[in-house]
From TrEMBL:
Residues 113-132 are annotated as: Disordered. Belongs to the PHLDA2 family. It is found in: Cytoplasm; Membrane. InterPro entries: PH-like_dom_sf (IPR011993), PH_domain (IPR001849), PHLA1/2/3 (IPR042832). GO terms for biological process: positive regulation of apoptotic process. The gene is Phlda2. SUPFAM superfamilies: PH domain-like. It comes from Catharus fuscescens (Veery). This is Pleckstrin homology-like domain family A member 2. Keywords: Cytoplasm, Membrane. It is a peripheral membrane protein. Its main location: cytoplasm. One of its GO terms (molecular function) is phosphatidylinositol phosphate binding. Residues 7-102 form the PH domain.
Amino acid sequence: MKMQAEVIREGELEKRSDSLFQLWKKKLVVLTKDSLSLFPDGHKRAKGKELGFGSILKVDCVERTGKSGGWPGRPEPRQEIDFRCPDQSCWNASITMALIDFQNKRAIQDFKSRQEMEQAAGTQERRLARAP
């Protein structure tokens, strides 16, 4: 059973569709420490699309005109997803900070794993050097 992640922020954003006309559609967005979840009907009743931070490379602000700010999320190497939000809503900062925190934790875990592997390899080498 999957545990519910702690919600950092929840609210409505607009996402540009992938269709030919690229219309903006309102989505309920839930930000957690590991992902962004998008719900199409503005409610959590429908099954949402989860964008895990493990697959997002970066978040950039791409539009700051009038009453909206927007940015592309990149969940896959060549895929870009455009969002826009009400001015001064700080969504960009919230998502960026959550992504940085996720990436920092992952880098620390990777470093610790490498250290443990190197220590284990060193212990094995010492055992082999002592063997008659």
